[in-house]
Design brief:
Layout: H1 12-20, H2 42-51, H3 56-73, E1 76-77, E2 86-87, E3 95-98, H4 99-123, H5 128-131, H6 137-141, E4 163-170, E5 176-182, H7 189-202, H8 204-209, H9 216-227, E6 237-240, H10 249-259, E7 262-264, E8 269-272, E9 275-280, E10 283-286, E11 289-292, H11 315-320, E12 325-327, H12 344-352, E13 363-365, H13 369-377, E14 383-386, H14 402-407, H15 409-418, E15 423-426, E16 433-440, E17 443-460, E18 463-466, E19 471-475, E20 489-492, E21 494-497, H16 524-553, H17 569-580, H18 591-600, H19 608-620, H20 628-642, H21 651-675, H22 680-704, H23 711-720, H24 724-730, H25 737-746, H26 754-767, H27 779-792, H28 801-822
Parallel strand pairs: 3-21, 6-7, 6-11, 11-12
Antiparallel strand pairs: 1-2, 4-5, 4-17, 8-9, 9-10, 13-15, 14-15, 16-17, 17-18, 17-19, 19-20
Length: 839
């Protein structure tokens, strides 16, 4: 290979020329890649010099690897109002910014964050801005984000804002401008972290060579900022989410995992004795800091929105008495108002003595007569947007651009006449562009794509600290606005290039936590999810084993009549169980059709696929507790059972798929046993599996190990319990009823027997916390002990159909008793303390 040429024979200069030769920014729009003279900017030149040395097939292979990692790690997002998860769409190129420009941008961001903090302190305090005529009272009082119950409440810890974010874009003059302030509950920080992890995994060499600024120091400082002001030296910090159907739940889970926070929902929390507590399986535990990621209006149904089911009744009292530090304080969203932008420049001069370094597009509030007159006179050249924060999910769709205004001029003028204070007029702020890949017959090339950048600043005890990066969204089409994530929008990492080599982050020596070996407390809701994760995984395995037994163990003995119906007794019983469990639509289906429904039927609620998908949904609420390897196996299993949907498969193909699925479940079980810390979370996963396995085995035994069981029946029983090898090594004379019953029900050495499960269940319950202080075992422990006592005094001959049915019923009752004791949605889920003040 000659100098300057890569492995594919194409020279670096030739490749770069092909990539950028047809790159044409849109007229009138600034571009991040090319300057006004059409030359690549310095930061991009550094990236291209190194990227160009890689053959295109290697570049694409690295991005394929990145997409695979995204899928395996379960990184996803939801579009507002859509319950489906979409794989995270990472863009193919990072946005690169050089050090001098980033310093200027950071200074402007710090100034603006401090200004927002000062405005909130005034609005919820002395009100001098209104009194001095710097801010119209109607903008404050008329904002739905101004929360009157918080007026006069000093923020515990001294800060209204723990985290400030701003959506920015480059204006036509080349200067960055703020398109929107984000102070309510800024999102995107977790996705910025995920983007960095994925892209540096794909291009570690570029990341090192370009001296990209690291992110860990910011996150460490932010965690310390959250804890600042709490009453205890080692506070318990919780991240409050609205749950797995939140559009940003995955990034919330990623942040909780990375920062070591407890991920909680409203039902996990309760006020008691003036303090906020987390419901855990060990009882109520004090919460010192709450980083909320729900809108403030939903935070407290007693004092704010009474229809909310996301918040915590009475939590505002914890802010009044100073027992809880919250980021960001409820009511912080008031400064997101579009109307505030019209007055921000003069407020900045009054409070700081400086002009804004990061300005918004020029804005006029139509509630002011002069502002309304200007908007009417210049309507054709302005955008019209809501004065208050737009409805959730509306984003930039709530903005009327000049073409829309021209087409609906009469309606717009009528709205301005009837409710002028609801609108602001603003100079148009078209987004600048950055390069994205486009595939052509000749190979890859760069094309300009509109983008928006969200940047973050954290309020640390040492002052505001800016994340050296950000959350970038890119539109795949020039006419689609990328302000919010939706279909057609991709994300990109943001690389801030340092002037000097960047040292790898080192652990902090000051303020490091003391060594401890306790695993922390498990919220009741998380215990519920872990328990059902285990149960659903075991149900999927049971269905797969039924299918395998039907295709293999019974296949040789199947007899069909003239219609093709299966008439072998064992096969009929297998089909009956599958039908009873809802794994097939009808027991009389042909063998291949029946196996296909039971394995991969999408609309079949009891199919293996349905149970795996439920297990994954439960796992989605537990992203902070499952390893990356477990996620990968679960993703592979989900894909395996959904592959080639709509095709009809032959029995041999279904057999192979069932065997592979069983291997995946075995791998998942192994990872659970080997990778999960032996804390309460592991106990609940394994407890769910043990209870479900014992119940299923009893169900199998009633069908295949009854008093009239045939040799075929007993062979099926051993297959369903994966005990053929063990039985064959112990008994040489062939299958017999009592030895089979003993092995699958009573043998304490067989990890598939019911007795083995019962002993494991008792060990788990002994290791879980007990709330009773009187020395009397709780009801679920008494029930488990009684089941074990029955097994201890039982022989195989005693276990007829009646005894097995009673045992199955007792195990079901035990599962309910565990749920009632530990889980928020059990029989005692609506507890008295949750109803305080609702009468």
């Amino acid at each position: 290979m000659s100098a300057g040429r890569s492995a594919d024979g194409e020279g670096v200069s030739e490749r770069l020329a092909r990539w950028i030769g047809a790159y044409r920014p849109q007229a009138g729009l600034p571009d991040e890649f090319l300057d006004a003279d059409g030359r690549p900017r310095g930061a991009w030149t550094s990236l291209l010099d190194r990227l160009g040395t890689l053959p295109e097939r290697e570049i694409m292979a690295r991005f394929v690897s990145a997409e695979r990692h995204i899928r395996d790690a379960g990184i996803s997002y939801r579009i507002y109002g859509d319950q489906r998860e979409h794989a995270w769409p990472l863009g193919s190129l990072p946005l690169v910014i050089d050090a001098p420009e980033w310093r200027a941008l950071s200074e402007g961001l710090v100034q603006r964050a401090a200004l927002m903090e000062a405005i909130l302190a005034d609005v919820y305090g002395p009100g001098r801005l209104v009194a001095d005529g710097l801010l119209p009272a109607a903008i404050v009082a008329g904002s739905p984000e101004f929360l009157r119950p918080l007026h006069g409440v000093a923020p515990p810890g001294g800060r209204y804002l723990k985290l400030y974010a701003a959506d920015i874009g480059r204006g036509a003059d080349g200067r960055w401008r703020v398109l929107a302030d984000r102070t309510q509950a800024p999102s995107g920080l977790g996705y910025a972290l995920e983007n960095r992890m994925v892209l540096t995994r794909a291009f570690p060499d570029l990341y090192q060579d370009l001296h990209v600024e690291r992110l860990p120091a910011f996150f460490q400082a932010f965690r310390q900022a959250l804890a600042a002001g709490s009453e205890r030296s080692e506070p318990r910090i919780c991240l409050l989410t609205s749950g797995p159907f939140s559009s940003t739940y995955v990034e919330q889970a990623a942040l909780a995992r990375y920062l070591g926070l407890m991920l909680v929902e409203g039902d996990d929390l309760v006020m008691q004795d003036g303090c906020l507590h987390v419901r855990t399986v060990s009882g109520l535990k004090r919460a010192d800091v709450l980083w909320r990621r729900i809108d403030a209006d939903y935070l407290d149904p007693l004092e704010l929105n009474p229809a909310s089911r996301l918040g915590i009744p009475g939590v505002i009292d914890a802010l009044r008495n100073g027992s809880l530090v919250m980021g960001n304080m409820p009511g912080s969203g008031m400064v997101e108002s579009g109307a505030l932008a019209a007055y921000l420049p003069r407020i900045a001069r009054a409070l700081t003595g400086e002009d804004l370094r990061l300005e918004s597009p020029r804005t006029w509030w139509c509630g002011d007569p002069d502002g309304l007159a200007h908007v009417r006179d210049h309507l054709d050249g302005l955008t019209l947007k809501p004065a208050a924060t737009p409805t959730r999910g509306a984003g930039r769709d709530a903005i009327l651009a000049p073409p829309t205004i021209a087409a609906e001029r009469a309606r717009v003028l009528e709205a301005l006449r009837d409710r002028p204070f609801d609108y602001v007029g603003q100079e148009p702020a078209p987004l600048s562009t950055m390069p994205g890949w486009e595939r052509t017959d000749a190979g890859l090339r760069f094309v300009p794509r509109p983008f928006a950048l969200r940047v973050f600043a954290a309020a640390t005890p040492e002052g505001w600290r800016v994340l050296p990066g950000g959350f970038c969204r890119i539109s795949e089409r020039p006419d689609v606005d990328p302000i919010e994530m939706r279909l057609g929008i991709r994300s990109a990492d943001v690389w801030v290039l340092s002037d000097t080599p960047v040292d790898a982050p080192t652990p902090a020596l000051q303020g490091a936590p003391r060594v401890r070996r306790i695993a922390g407390h498990l919220p009741s809701r998380a215990a519920d999810g872990l328990f059902w994760f285990g149960r659903y995984a075991e149900r999927a395995e049971a269905v797969i084993r039924l299918v395998l037994a039907h295709l293999v163990s019974v296949g040789e003995a199947v007899v069909t009549d003239i219609t093709g119906d299966v008439r072998a007794p064992a096969a009929q019983r297998l089909r009956a169980i599958l039908a009873e469990w809802g794994a097939v639509s009808a027991p009389g289906l042909p063998t291949a059709a029946l196996a296909q429904e039971a394995l991969i039927g999408r609309e079949i609620h009891g199919s293996a696929r349905a149970h795996v998908e439920r297990a994954r949904r439960n796992a989605a609420t537990l992203r902070t507790r499952l390893s990356g390897e477990a996620w990968r196996v679960l993703a592979d299993l989900t894909d395996l059972l959904a592959l080639d949907e709509g095709r009809d498969f032959a029995e041999a193909q279904l057999l192979g798929r069932a065997e592979r699925a069983l291997s995946h479940i075995a791998a998942l079980s192994g990872l659970t046993q080997e990778n999960m810390s032996r804390a309460a979370g592991w106990h609940f996963v394994d407890l769910g599996r043990r209870i479900e396995r014992a119940i299923n085995t009893c169900s199998f035994a009633m069908s295949f190990a009854g008093d009239e069981a045939s040799a075929d029946d007993l062979g099926v029983m051993l297959a369903l319990c994966d005990s053929q090898v063990t039985y064959g090594a112990r008994y040489m004379q062939g299958v017999a009823l009592e030895p089979v019953r003993d092995m699958v029900l009573l043998d304490p050495f067989n990890p598939r027997s019911v007795a083995f499960q019962v002993e494991a269940i008792l060990r788990h319950l002994d290791d879980l916390p007990a709330l009773s202080a009187d020395g009397i075992p709780e009801s679920h422990r008494r029930l488990a002990a009684r089941i074990r006592a029955e097994f201890a005094g039982c022989e195989a001959a005693d276990l007829d159909g009646v005894a097995m049915a009673r045992l199955e019923s007792d195990l079901e009752r035990l599962a309910d008793a565990v749920a009632g004791r530990y889980f928020p949605n059990g029989p005692q889920g609506l507890r008295p303390e949750k109803l305080v003040g609702l009468a």
